[in-house]
Each structure stands twice: as C-alpha cells, then as structure tokens.
Amino acid sequence: MVLRHTLGGGRAPGMIAALSHALGVGFYALLTVWGLGAVIVHQPLLFALITWCGAAYLAWLGIKAIRAGRQGVLATGAMTTSATLAARDGMLVALANPKLILFFVALLSQFVSADMDALAKALIVITAASIDAGWYVLVAIALSHSRLLPWLQHRAHWINRVTGVLLIALALRMMLG
Asked: Is the model's pTM score more than 0.70?
C-alpha cells in the first residue's frame, strides 16, 4: 500500500499512507491498553465481523491492483493518488487487519496492568505507532529515491499484479483461517 502510493504520487503520498497506517496501529494498541482488545478477541461475532470486513477490503484492493494493468505504468511525477486516498488506505489497511488486535493482546498483555498509569499506557501506544511509522516512512523514502522510483514506475504493472495476487491471497487466508 505504501509502495502503491509512492509509485502513484511520490514521496509525500507514500509517507502519508505510512503515517495513517501508524495511526491505525496506534488505535489498536490503544484498544489493547484499555482492555478493549481482549474484549474484541473474546467476542466471536465482533471479531468475525472485523475479519470479514477486513478480508473484503483487502480483496477489493487486490482486484483493483490487478485490474490496473498497464494503466499502472506511471510517468515520472504523475499523480494518480492523493493525500486523502493515501490516508484512507493507510488507515483502512491497518484497521482491516484483525490480526493486529491478536498481536497486541498477546504482546502487550505482558506489560499492561490494571494499576498502570495513563502516562505508561500512552508510552506503549506511542511506541507501537512510532515503530510502525518509522518503518513505513523509511520504505516510502527509499522507494521514492530519484534512481529507484523511475525503475519501479516502469515496472508498476507487474508490481500491481503481484501485489494484487498477494492481497487476494491474504484476504482468502483471513476468510478461511
């Protein structure tokens, strides 16, 4: 998703997608430190609903990527994305992944206690979001390098196809798993 927005608009949309994804990760970390992550995990209907909606969204993104075909080949500097689309996709990809809830419940349950103060909980949330943001911002910066971006843009149709297949496979795995 960060790659797609970086290819479609350059460094800024890629970084916006990265930062909005980090906000989604931070939201799940916040739910976990508040104890709501465990509630969601133990509510099979709610968890299934999040899973199915997430799988549908990932499948939709995958189909869009595959159907992009040669339209995905971009001229240098062409804007086929926007800050709004990048922010939406970044947030939805994070929120559409119910495995993040499981990950944070499993990981953070060791560190979160009922008597923990708000500052310590905030530090956990900020750390989770910062690590996610740091990684994906680095990806956007690396992929938007002046030598690498044109090479990637020239091969965008293949990147779209591979990404589309991977997203559909992930959606199927979520639905079947």
From this structure: yes
What is the C-alpha to C-alpha distance for residues 37 and 83, in angstroms, rounded to an integer?
Answer: 29
pLDDT digits (tens, 9 = 90+) for 35-57: 877 787 788 888 788 778 878 88
Give the tens place of pLDDT for each residue, 104-158: 877 777 777 778 899 999 999 999 999 999 999 999 998 888 787 778 777 777 8
Taking alpha carbons only, the member of 25, 27, 28, 21 closest to residue 5 is: 21
